[in-house]
Amino acid sequence: MLEIKSGDNRVGIYPALGGSIAYWLRRDIPVFYPIVNSHLASRSKQIIAAYPLLPYSNRIANGQFQFENRSYQLDLNAANGKDSIHGNAWQREWSLEALTEKTVTLSLTHEPNGEFSGQWPFSYFAKIVYALSENGLAVHLSFKNTDHEKQPVGLGFHPYFPRRDQVEVGFTARSVWNNGTDGLPQGRMSIEGNWSFEKMQVLKKDTVLDNCYAGWDRFAFIRWKYSHAYLTMTCSQIFKHLVVFTPENQPYFTLEPASNMNNGINMPEISDRGLTILKPDQELRGDIFYSFTGV
């Protein structure tokens, strides 16, 4: 594991475990909430606090999609045993390209052959840069199509946050996707009542959400009321979706910025699904900035 430091902040990083973040601590208080993830930690039993999502965010129904008049079947790596989820970068060992006291640069080369053939059918080269400062953490993602064909791409990032001290969340978006019984987007809804976070909303223990918000304005605010701590998340323009996951009676929640909507690869009729079609040698980039104060 690698560690970068700046001021009161320390971030641990696992290149070998999906380029994931093991912890982000400020004066030994977790900013990201470390958990044992049944998939990410299946081999190493390590604790994970955040990880990159590429070449897509969230689920692909049954691991199947069609693109350029061809049908594809991905490995099923979701907990429900019937979908593919979060791409394959989190399943792979990343290479260390550069390391300083405050930054680390990792890269991943994917070729769809051998044991990796079912993870993603196109070749790519990805980079992630974690840059720490006294005020927070920057995450820079890039994805280059190294295949000889076009490929459909999405980017995202999956942090866990502590669900303590009467935590409140605020953000604005244009709509939210309701899920069917299969957990996949079923219909778009206007944002009203408990669905709305335009005014700061407390995440109660029985608040249960696992939904994709569309037309997100790329800014979110988290406040831990009793510890007087605050976090803002700002993202570059490609991240127009936000997945909110608040499992019942769990000590964590997630706000996952994403370029593509859940199962967007199978919803070509949705004009704002957020999928990017990359030609050979084209690149997609996205930046996420976390600013933390308090504690």
Describe it.
The protein has 295 residues and is mostly beta strands. The protein has a single domain, classed as Beta-galactosidase, Chain A, domain 5, CATH 2.70.98.10. 0% of the residues lie in helices and 48% in strands. It contains no helices and 26 strands. The protein has a nine-stranded antiparallel beta sheet with strand order 10-11-12-13-26-22-21-16-19, with no helix packed on it. The protein starts with a strand and ends with a strand. The mean pLDDT is 95.
Using only CA atoms, what is the Rg? 18 Å
**Treating each run of at least 4 consecutive H or I residues as one helix, how many helices?**
0
Share in β-strands: over 45%
Element pattern in H and E: EEEEEEEEEEEEEEEEEEEEEEEEEE
CATH fold-type name:
Beta-galactosidase, Chain A, domain 5
The total strand number stands at: 26
Indicate the low-confidence ranges by residue numbers: none
**pLDDT averaged residue by residue:** 95
Question: In CATH, what is the class?
Answer: Mainly Beta
- Summing up helix and strand content along with how strands pair, one would put the structural category as mainly beta
Tally of structural domains: 1
Secondary-structure topology with pairs:
Layout: E1 2-6, E2 9-14, E3 20-26, E4 29-32, E5 50-53, E6 59-60, E7 64-67, E8 70-73, E9 84-85, E10 95-99, E11 103-110, E12 124-132, E13 136-145, E14 151-153, E15 156-162, E16 167-171, E17 175-179, E18 185-189, E19 201-202, E20 209-214, E21 219-224, E22 229-235, E23 241-246, E24 252-258, E25 276-278, E26 283-293
Antiparallel strand pairs: 1-2, 2-3, 3-4, 5-15, 6-9, 7-8, 10-11, 11-12, 12-13, 13-26, 14-25, 15-24, 16-19, 16-21, 17-18, 17-20, 20-23, 21-22, 22-26, 23-24
